[in-house]
Amino acid sequence: MSSATRTSAYLKNILQNGVGRYVCQLQRVTFQFCKSRGDSKGIRDFIETHLVDFAKQNAGVAVYVQPRRHRRPYVIAEYLNGAKVDFCVHEQNADEVSRWLEHLRTRCGVQIQRLRKQHHTDHPSIQGQWTPFVNLPTELNTTQFPSENLSRAIQRQPTATQKILDMAAKQQAASGDQGSENKPV
Amino acid sequence: MAACRKALTLCRLSSRIESARFFHRWQRPTFQQLYKLRKMAGPEAEKPRSAQTNWNRDGELYAFGERLGELLGARTLDRAFTHESYVAREEEERRRLGIAREEEEGGKLDVDHNGALIERGTAIVSTYTKAYLRHQLPNLPEEGICAIHDYLTSDNMLEYIGSNLGMKDLILSEDFPVRTHTVGQTFRAVVGALANDQGEERAQLFVQDFVLTQLVNQDVSEMWTLVNPMGVLTMILQQRGMVLPEPRILRSTGSSTVVACYVVGIYSNKQLIGQAPGETEITAEEMAARDALAGIFGIRNAAATLKLGTAGRHLTIDPAARNPSLDSLCGRPLGGDSATVSMAAT
């Protein structure tokens, strides 16, 4: 899919999170699995081995476990901003489930979109935004236009005529010096 | 209608059918019919989160406290989220059904509501916000402090903060969907509960971390605007014994076009104290006067200089301190509210 058709967004921070204190944005996580189907094996292993540790380390996340007969296993994450992510962990092992859960835990719940920029700053320029007035001499405020001085063409290099005149002057000076040397005393 | 609901349940189930290589002949007419019924029945009514099966109120309350990093008792939290209107409704319901126990007089329930917590929380939110702002912006007149305070502690702002902290799902109240005012009150009740359980200082830090941080990226000078900035500037400079302000055009361009731009600077004793652009000389002068006042009040870059987070942990804030009022800065009464407009009022 081309970037023109994908929705885009700027980086944003919900509720200035982290300026004061950090609040984990994952509010609630529900594990849905089947007790008998093979594709739920990984999530069942995860629940047996890792889930209690996860719940202890993240006491701010409410954890629910829902067995559902003969259905695909899902991890459903609900975020503080009201977003809900249904994540299918079909045929994944306990380690994979654990890693996807970590991904869901560290997200902020904002929809994943193409980011216009990978960075954000409140101060895009230290010097301030450029305007046509930046570094403009103040005397222009009182100058009467048209001004003869300012209307003249600006010459940064000597013209061809000027160069030839300079060369001629140099030559003349040199021949003058020679002449003085050859002069009989 | 019952048949309609049953059909809709069928529709939800059929969407879960896993992949097949063909469509049954009955599917198209059935789904068409179901679609018609769905349109007739209209959208499903919004339900509270607690109506779903994966909901444990005690667990959610515990997670709420842990999420904020605060040690709050289960009973206090429960109380903070229970509104008076909910208790009243429950009592009414019990009376109506005739299931009020005998020891309950007139169907009164033995449930605490958050009335007292709201009262305490409101006082803390209001007092601390003002005290913090006075401490951080000592040159801003009292009217400006009040305008920023009104912006931060309005129901809209507290609802925004509270709902992003997951308060909406936990509220026990008569109204659903929960009203803005109810969420605002719940936020205040939580602050009150914190003060009760953990002491006032923790409650103040909570306000600093969640309410005052909302000033980041905001332009403080837009929350409080003066009606006649040049007049006020003149009076303030006069009161301070400084030379009266003198506006000068610093730059101008395109004066005979529709995109004219003038940059006006305000000088006092040949010192540039403020400058601003504008599309006419008068607008530019007014904006320059506002800029000069922002410089005098110390709010040009206020949001960036606020001490928040770790820098705001050990501030010695005097709650009794007051900033000078605008009248005292000007040396004469300006006629009350007519002189200033705050964002909350407009």
- The SSE order of chain B reads HHHHHHHHHHEHEEEHHHE
Provide the helix percentage of chain A: 25-40%
Provide the structure class of chain B: mainly alpha
Quaternary: heterodimer
SS elements, strand count of chain B: 5
Corresponding CATH superfamily of the largest domain in chain B: Ribonuclease III domain
Fraction of residues in β-strands of chain B? 5-15%
**Shape label of chain A:** elongated
What is the topology?
The complex is a heterodimer of chains A (185) and B (346).
Chain A: E1 8-9, E2 26-33, H1 41-49, H2 51-57, E3 62-67, E4 74-79, E5 84-88, H3 94-106, E6 114-115, H4 148-151, H5 160-182
Helix pairs in contact in A: 1-3
Chain B: H1 2-14, H2 27-41, H3 57-67, H4 74-81, H5 84-97, H6 115-136, H7 142-152, H8 155-164, H9 180-198, H10 200-210, E1 224-226, H11 229-239, E2 246-253, E3 261-268, E4 271-278, H12 281-297, H13 302-305, H14 326-330, E5 340-342
Antiparallel strand pairs in B: 1-5, 2-3, 3-4
What does this structure look like?
The complex is a heterodimer of chains A (185) and B (346). Chain A is built from 5 helices and 6 strands, in the order E-E-H-H-E-E-E-H-E-H-H. With 185 residues, chain A is an alpha/beta fold. In chain A, the strands form 2 sheets. Chain A has a 4-stranded mixed sheet, covered by helices on one side. A two-stranded parallel ribbon of chain A has the order 1-6. Chain A is elongated, with a radius of gyration of 38 Å. Chain B has 346 residues and is mainly alpha-helical. Chain B has 2 domains: 159 residues, Ribonuclease iii, N-terminal Endonuclease Domain, Chain A; 123 residues, Double Stranded RNA Binding Domain (2-Layer Sandwich). A 3-stranded antiparallel sheet of chain B has the order 2-3-4, with helices on one face. The longest helix of chain B has 22 residues. The mean pLDDT of chain B is 89. Classes of the chains: A alpha/beta (185), B mainly alpha (346).
